[in-house]
Amino acid sequence: MTVECEVAIALEQRERLQEGPLPDRPLEPQPAPPADQAPPRGRPWVKGQSGNPAGRPPLIHPPAAVAEYVIARKTIPLAKKLRDLALAGDRSMLRLWFQHVAPSRRGTPHWLALPLVEDRAELRALREAVAEAAAKGAITTAQADALVRIVNTVMAMM
Fold it and tell me: Residue by residue, what is the 3-state secondary structure of the chain?
């Protein structure tokens, strides 16, 4: 601000003081209202009525949703970067790739020799054959469980 502006502001303030007190501020303190007209203490609203009937406003963008959106947008570029670093020879990135992106499959299913079934009786026979193969050790229990679940699902659809 320039000196001229400061002088003009000071002059305006002096003129206002000379005009008199501001109308919205009384010079004397107001007396307290009588006891019978005092506002109720403790419960200003009627019992059962909320002080905020509209309720708390919802968050426009909850922080968890924003974080999920940002991570979802960056997942594919991060995976590509991880792959490129692993292919370039970075051992830690290679370890991360095989641990999280492409983990080794345990108990791979051998379903190539399964017969085609046409009715529920054949499905029951297939379920018994799977149980026998698991008992003999020809397939693992995890493979047997997966096969029995598939057979049960197909039986429910028939």
Answer: CCHHHHHHHHHHHHHHHHHCCCCCCCCCCCCCCCHHHCCCCCCCCCCCCCCCCCCCCCCCCCHHHHHHHHHHHHHHHHHHHHHHHHHHCCHHHHHHHHHHHCCCCCCCCCCCCCCCCCCHHHHHHHHHHHHHHHHHCCCCHHHHHHHHHHHHHHHHHC
